[in-house]
Amino acid sequence: MVQNGLAAVLVVEDDDAVRGFLTFALANGGHPSLGVRTGEEAMTMLRDTSAAVILIDGILPDMHGIRLARAILEDPEFESVGISFVTGAIRDGRSPKAGVGALSKPLRARDLVDAVDVLLRWRQNGGSPVAERQAALAELEHIFLVGA
């Protein structure tokens, strides 16, 4: 899923309006994107496309976003996919560490595009070891659980 030399973004969001906003904002920011509703659809789409970044809602109809992110990190085929949560479950976004970050809802289109740009640069610079990515995900999971 590459358009004009740009790698695509996969948006995993069950709310149609939010998913529409995210994909529209990304397209306007120069990032082709595709949206799906569930974690299962996301894993299928990752296998069928070349998404460079995945944006994940915290709570999906079929699983928690953390579970989806963990599944992505456990699959060597997706080790270079940048991950960002887009969630209302945390007050302040978290800059990506080892290609794993979080944006808090509501968010501005510019902040969304900037976050994707950061993840794409991380990927272009060689990414991070899976163990570092898993540790970064564990930090975010803790924030989700305690609501910090």
**Percent of residues in β-strands:** 15-25%
- Look at the structure and give the CATH class: Alpha Beta
Counting H and I runs of at least 4 residues, what is the number of helices?
5
CATH architecture annotation: 3-Layer(aba) Sandwich
Low-confidence stretches: 1-6
**Derived structural class:** alpha/beta
* Arithmetic mean of pLDDT: 90
Order of helices and strands: EEEHEHEHEEEHH
Number of domains: 1
According to CATH, what is the topology?
Rossmann fold
Instruction: Record the strand order, biggest sheet.
Output: 4-3-5-6-8-7
Note the overall shape: globular
Helix amount? 40-55%
User: What is the gyration radius calculated from CA atoms?
Assistant: 14 Å
Q: Please identify which CATH superfamily we are dealing with.
A: Response regulator
- Largest beta sheet, briefly? 6 strands, mixed
| Beta-strand segment tally | 8
Q: Which characteristics define this entry?
A:
six-stranded mixed sheet; 22% strand; alpha/beta; 148 residues; globular; Rossmann fold; single chain
Model description:
By secondary structure, the protein is α/β, with parallel strands linked by helices. It has helices spanning 16-28, 39-48, 65-74, 109-124, 130-146; strands spanning 2-3, 6-7, 9-12, 33-36, 53-57, 82-87, 94-97, 100-104. The chain has a single domain (2-146), classed as Response regulator (Rossmann fold). Helices cover 45% and strands 22% of the residues. The strands form 2 sheets. A 6-stranded mixed sheet has the order 4-3-5-6-8-7, sandwiched between helices. A two-stranded antiparallel sheet has the order 1-2. Strand 3 (9-12), helix 1 (16-28) and strand 4 form a beta-alpha-beta unit. Helix 1 (16-28) crosses helix 4 and helix 3 packs antiparallel against helix 5. Mean pLDDT is 90; it is low at 1-6.
